[in-house]
Amino acid sequence: MTDLALWFDPSKCLINGEWVAPIKGGTLPLYDPSNGAEIGSIARGTAEDIDAAVAAAEAARSGPWGRMSAAERGRILMRLGRMVEERVDDLTRIEAIDVGKPLKQARADAVALARYCEFYGGAADKLLGETIPYLDGYTVYTLREPHGVTGHIVPWNYPMQIIGRSVGAALATGNTCVLKPAEDACLTALAFADMAKAAGLPDGVLNVVPGLGAEAGAALTAHPGVHHISFTGSVGTGIMVQEAAAKNVVPVTLELGGKSPQVVFGDADLERALPFLVNAGIQNAGQTCSASSRILVHRSVHDEVLERMAARYGALQVGPAMADLDVGPLISAKQQGLVSGFLGMAGDLETAAQGVLRDAPNGGYYVRPTLLAGVKPHHPLAQKEIFGPVQVVIPFDDEDEAVAIANGTDYGLVASVWTQDGGRQMRLARAICAGQVFLNNYGAGGGVELPFGGRGKSGHGREKGFEAMYGFTTLKTVAAWHG
Ligand code: TXE
């Protein structure tokens, strides 16, 4: 039996600073993706619990939080960041078991959560308004004010990082929060909220209601008392979230994943590029919104890149999270089924290489990392988000064709370009349709400072960095006539 050693009860919600059982008393089973075993249960919150959480978040706006200086809000966040740092080992263990993340990757998420608290804590009192030159006799200035009650719907792939970027920016700007973590991975959300209480966040400012998307999630997005929704997840659910929010005329930030390309030209520094080419596809078993699932390679180096990527794939080891190998299991039997279904569509595509299973327990949700070659740009495997450790390699002949293929999906989240030619770097950075473009790297270390978000079906709005704080505020213009 996996020992989670939790210091809180995951069958409860955290509402108004209290651990409370869901009003209807429901629970959902909790599985360990590394072996498929049922290891406990979590709260199955419903619309009734969301009502209570929204009421608590609304009340908290007029409590000490509403009157607190931005500097003091920032201090609480920074204190919280230090507490997260002190408990990195606990958070790492919990996330590794709950999500099936290899330990090193789970640890990186916990460290990132601390860093988000530090960044947004430091930024809280640095969000400035403007004065606007206007007619004689007027002084005009702008105020950035919190939306009010913000709803946060978080997926299971990077719970800590996504909570850090979304809840961190919302709190820094003075909002209150209702967080609905994913039913497949809610433990670190509860742990974080418990720590926030200990760090001095007033009751009701951060409420967590675990539960199913169709129940707690849908209730949160449709709730008339919510003033902003932040959602990360699938395109289909994102559309439902936006429709629900539209009925209340509420702004939404949507981050809906992608089909992100890396474009490799003949003059690329392959020695540097190769680890990025592969890691960007297999990190977190490919369950990453900004995973690079398409590798576009100039024909002059296509065979060499394919061969060298295949060698790396062949050496990838797949196994339980606690073994801390290259790749862990997928999150759920459902996700394993989805990814296996995609691999079933490979037909006569060439499987260039696959990773190997090592001591992977029966019942775990494993999929061998798979590198596919000879893929046409319009093949479904080169178009659809697979969300598993699968990459396709596509050749191209010139720059225009590379851009056309890179931009030839419904998505536009991130992209990278590998070339030593400075002019080409600048041209492609502009021509590629994406929220982030990396030149001779991929992901830039995931910096919390870097605005992140998509175009097209990858969503809209920006998270991370200072930019996210604009999204969590509404602008008021004050025009004073003084003669
Ligand atoms: O996503 P959902 P799923 C993509 C990825 C994956 C696919 C399915 O391609 O294979 O989505 O994953 C909540 N109202 N991404 O089914 O349904 C749900 O409880 C409100 C990409 O897990 O979008 C969870 O908290 N909320 C992505 C969250 O939405 C609802 C990360 C995500 O679940 C809801 C995850 C509803 N009606 C999956 N239904 C990324 N961009 O990184 C569900 N939810």
Description:
The protein is an alpha/beta fold and 483 residues long. It folds into two domains: 261 residues, 3-Layer(aba) Sandwich (Aldehyde Dehydrogenase, Chain A, domain 1); 197 residues, Aldehyde Dehydrogenase, Chain A, domain 2, CATH 3.40.309. 38% of the residues lie in helices and 22% in strands. It is built from 15 helices and 22 strands. α1 packs parallel to α8, α3 packs antiparallel against α5 and α5 packs parallel to α6. The chain is globular, with a radius of gyration of 23 Å. The mean pLDDT is 97. The protein binds ligand TXE. The site of ligand TXE has 26 residues, from α8, α9 and α12.
Output the CATH homologous superfamily of the largest domain.
Aldehyde Dehydrogenase, Chain A, domain 1
Compute the number of structural domains: 2
Kindly, what is the distance between the CA atoms of the first and last residues, rounded to a whole number of angstroms? 76 Å
CATH architecture of the largest domain: 3-Layer(aba) Sandwich
Taken from the alpha-carbon principal axes, the silhouette is globular
Strand count? 22
Bound molecules: ligand TXE
